[in-house]
Write a structure and sequence with these properties.
globular, 129 residues, 7 helices, single chain
Length: 129
């Protein structure tokens, strides 16, 4: 018989999988001129750091079991392309989405990094070979 943490982890993985399945279906194509300052990595990292500095996001991450310090280290460890994609995702969050959307986005990025093998925080993920 499975233990309660194992069942909880499986249920969490199933819920996250179901919640993240429609994400690829919502992509749209936008064409616009972009300036140099928008493409720099420092701008992307600054946006992510500003999002992590918000107290409601820190509280949500702590509730999900991710210490704010660890989240900051993960943002610092992101490669340039991933940092830019994450910052772009923050810009596309609807105004009424609130902190829950941002927290889910950051949590999804952390799980993605865990699955890809860059980090090892969540015990319910397995590294892609």
């Amino acid at each position: 018989m499975a233990t309660i943490p194992t069942v909880r982890n499986r249920m969490l993985a199933a819920v996250l999988t179901c919640a993240l399945l429609p994400l690829p279906l919502t992509r749209t194509a936008d064409a616009a001129m972009i300036g140099t300052d928008e493409t720099t990595t420092t701008t992307a990292r600054a946006k992510l750091a500003a999002a992590l500095a918000r107290p409601e996001l820190r509280a949500e991450l702590e509730r999900l079991g991710v210490p704010a310090v660890e989240a900051g280290r993960r943002v610092a460890a992101l490669d340039d392309a991933t940092a830019e994609r994450a910052a772009e995702g923050l810009d596309k969050v609807p105004a009424g989405a609130g902190i829950v959307g941002v927290a889910v986005f950051v949590f999804a990025v952390m799980i993605m990094l865990d699955v890809l093998g860059y980090t090892r925080i969540f015990p319910f993920t397995s590294k892609v070979r």
